[in-house]
Specification:
The structure holds 2 protein chains of 2 kinds.
Chain A: E1 5-8, H1 23-38, E2 43-48, E3 53-66, E4 82-92, H2 101-119, E5 124-128, H3 132-140, E6 144-145, E7 152-156, H4 157-165
Parallel strand pairs in A: 4-5
Antiparallel strand pairs in A: 1-2, 2-3, 3-4, 5-7, 6-7
Helix pairs in contact in A: 2-4
Chain B: H1 16-28, H2 33-53, E1 54-57, H3 59-68, H4 77-83
The chains are: A alpha+beta, B mainly alpha.
Chain lengths: ~170, ~90
């Protein structure tokens, strides 16, 4: 796959032909990604070949919090929500599947997440897996299921940073 | 929000009954139908987005989860394989 580039989504990008095989992920990119970006709700990055859009992922922030209000503080219980960087979506166009582009996109998303947490602290990367197959993909690379939250997986940013430092 | 130009349209068809109940509720709230619909839809939209971004756990699970995060950083071998793949921008 020659000439692949990772770029931040812009108004000029042609998105309409994107098809990863999942309607929800297609539609979000084509209809909502740019508006979400303009509203500072999500950042979307595109993997572009010279002629086509091969894949994308979107990053945003989030948290893991406990059910009861923080005012109901009990001894020894952590009070605060845990800040997270969320990989909300990651998809590869059908024409580019089976070439490890998903893994390469995930690697780039994790590098960006570590860089983001260097400037604005977050403790975890959380991934939102669209289906069981996607969840298995993330598990394969060392992500762990978030308790009580099906198809949400996580890894500590400090683990990811440590792993990245070995390269 | 009010100082920003509203340049986009969302067209929605409604039944007679939906139209009546929305107009009545907007009047009761002292709002125009547009303001009422926008406020309700935006509120719901933000709730849905929040549910996606903010994960909630029972108190018991949260305590165990938060405690486990204090362990020292460790290298993740399968993730290391991921970082060994060619960079997207380097080709």
């Amino acid at each position: 796959m020659n000439g692949l580039r990772l770029v931040l989504l812009g108004a000029a990008h042609e998105l309409s032909g994107f098809d990863c095989g999942n309607k929800e992920l297609n539609r979000w990119l084509i209809d909502h990604a740019l508006a979400s970006q303009k509203a500072d709700l999500a950042r979307t990055y595109l993997a572009l070949t010279d002629t086509a859009l091969a894949g994308y992922f979107s990053l945003t922030t989030g948290s893991v919090r406990r059910e009861s209000a923080p005012s109901r503080y009990t001894r020894g219980m952590p009070r605060h929500p845990i800040p997270t960087i969320l990989i909300a979506r990651l998809a590869v166009d059908r024409r580019h599947q089976g070439q490890q582009l998903g893994g390469r996109l995930l690697a780039e998303a994790l590098r960006l997440a570590v860089a983001a947490s260097d400037s604005a602290a977050a403790r975890l990367v959380v991934v939102d897996a669209i289906d069981d197959q996607a969840a298995a993909f993330y598990r394969r690379y060392g992500f762990i299921d978030v308790p009580e939250n099906p198809r949400r997986l996580f890894r500590k940013i400090s683990d990811i940073r440590r792993t990245l430092e070995g390269h | 929000m009010s100082s920003v130009t509203r340049s986009r349209r969302i067209d929605v068809r409604v039944t007679d009954e939906q139209d009546a109940v929305i107009r009545e509720a907007a009047a009761a709230a002292g709002q125009t139908v547009t303001a009422f619909l926008l406020a309700a839809a935006e509120d719901r939209a933000r709730t849905v987005l929040d549910e996606r971004r903010h994960l909630v756990m029972s108190d018991r699970a949260f305590v165990a989860f938060a405690a486990a995060l204090d362990s020292p950083a460790e290298e993740v071998p399968p993730m290391s394989d991921l970082f060994a793949l060619p960079r997207i921008n380097d080709e």
